[in-house]
Design goal:
Blueprint lengths: L2 E5 L4 H12 L3 E6 L18 E5 L14 E4 L6 H6 L1 H22 L2 E7 L26 H21 L3 E6 L2 E2 L10 H10 L4 E4 L5 E3 L1 E2 H13 L5 E4 L4 E3 H12 L5 E4 L14 H7 L7 H17 L4
Parallel strand pairs: 1-2, 1-4, 2-3, 4-5, 5-6, 6-11, 7-10, 8-13
Antiparallel strand pairs: 9-12
Bound molecules: uridine-5'-diphosphate.
Length: 315
Amino acid sequence: MPRAIVTGGAGFLGSHLCRELLSRGWDVVAIDNLLTGTLDNIDDLRALDRFEFIEHDVTEEILVDGTVDAVLHFASPASPRDYLEHPIKTLKVGSLGTHNTLGLAKATGARFLLASTSEVYGDPLVHPQREDYWGNVNPVGPRGVYDEAKRFAEAMAMAYHRAHDLDVRIVRIFNSYGPFLRQGDGRVVSNFLVQALDDKPLTVYGDGGQTRSFCYVDDEVRGILALLDSDWVGPMNIGNPDEFTVLELAQLVLELTGADSEIVFDPLPVDDPTRRRPDIGLAERVLGWRPEVDLREGLRRTYEWYRRERERGRV
Ligand code: UDP
């Protein structure tokens, strides 16, 4: 059996990756310090022999027995609300955590996959964003803690590739969403769906004219694992190129849920990117990957999940 280490394995994307790797026959070790992840995300996995959970902060040395074939580094606060609340932990997990996980991959001869982000493009001056665009990031603004941590992590991964011939993959993830996106983590999809569920006002920041391109989690995970399997070294965008304004998203949520909520306008966070859309030409060419779940269907599935969790008393 191949064996994978997933850091951030109790988080949103990490837990989906663990589940999918297990279903593809991998043994999986999830490592998480539970800062923003939760054991609820993996409670169906913990009884499995092929799954192990280690509560650990990957900014400290990582010790794992046995063979390792892949290290997937997904540990990090990823929602603006979380990384603004934990600025130093975010910088540390992107720097020290990436160093430690690269060291683990090097010591075990494993392939390394880094969870990077569309935030490396900052507030992009080029649209849509292709992997060869270097970005427009404010290094000293509040969002810089996440953007620069991920940019540093990419640089570190490529340095390990060049200096140590480590087999590295870098996925740039664009606004993924779906079941297990924590209620209250502050991201726009979870906020709007839970606000609609509670018939509370939908909080649009700014005038809602800023755009994002939302990728349903099953598509995202399929793309990430295709990248892991591929020979592509270097960053690759995995996202859904359908672009929506935040106001359009709010209106779609109201239409799909039938909620009575009004839309209210709150202040725009500092350095909030005005537009974001992946160019996925590279992923299409190299992986033959394209997203399959459109926003309407993805929101419907995610809303159903929140409703079921609510019935179980979990959110
Ligand atoms: N946003 C919003 N209302 C919310 C949460 C977020 O209008 O309740 C906006 C936010 O300002 C940004 C977009 O939605 O323009 C996406 O925000 P999110 O925090 O989901 O992720 P980001 O893409 O900014 O990392």
